[in-house]
UniProtKB/TrEMBL annotation:
Region (Disordered): 191-213
Protein name in UniProt: AcrR family transcriptional regulator
UniProt keyword annotations, A-Z: DNA-binding, Transcription, Transcription regulation
Residue ranges for the DNA-binding region feature of this UniProt entry: 31-50
UniProt source species: Thermocatellispora tengchongensis
One MF annotation (Gene Ontology) recorded for this entry: transcription cis-regulatory region binding
Taxonomic lineage from the root: Bacteria, Bacillati, Actinomycetota, Actinomycetes, Streptosporangiales
Record bears the keyword Transcription regulation: yes
Amino acid sequence: MPSPDRSRARREEMLVQLRELFLAEGFASFGIGDLAERLRCSRTTLYSVAPSKEQIVVAAVRSFFKSAAERIEARVAAADDPARQLAIYLEAVAAELQAASAAFFADVAGFAPAGEVYRENTQYAARRVQELVAKGVRAGVLRPVHASFVGAAVAEVMGSIQRGAIQAATGLDAAQAYRHLADLVLTSLAGGPADQDQITPPRRQGRGSAEPL
């Protein structure tokens, strides 16, 4: 019997392969047999990830957002300037989503449990932007804006991107839309000293089960 450490390592390896396949081709058209054939593994190995295809999909989608969040936050932490941290965060989100195909986003939109994972991460990302805006205003490197309003506005746009409304209206895919959102936010907030009386600290919210984007 494999050791627990080896089993965990094998599961992580499978998740990496699954998310790469799903990002490239989506997941709705694959059955367990198809996945086993494409990944050259047994059904038993796939079921070590989760006990059903639906749960395997959710695990892979969650794994994608979790690994993306870790890379994004590592890049943010490497910058000292709060304005640069905001720029890095928004640009890195767009870069991470660039790997996802239209088929992946369509399948996420059509499968409620995967869509919920995406929605949770979108909500977290909006809160993270709010935190970074407030930090930049306090440091005097961003214009003195109402951070909670910016966070709420960004959340609305991110939600529209996630639901496909932005693509329907503009033809932009998710990664392209996030890049334009980054340009809009950064351009509108650049420059000007902070007025501490205008700063409203972001309301703390629990993350729940969300994995940060």
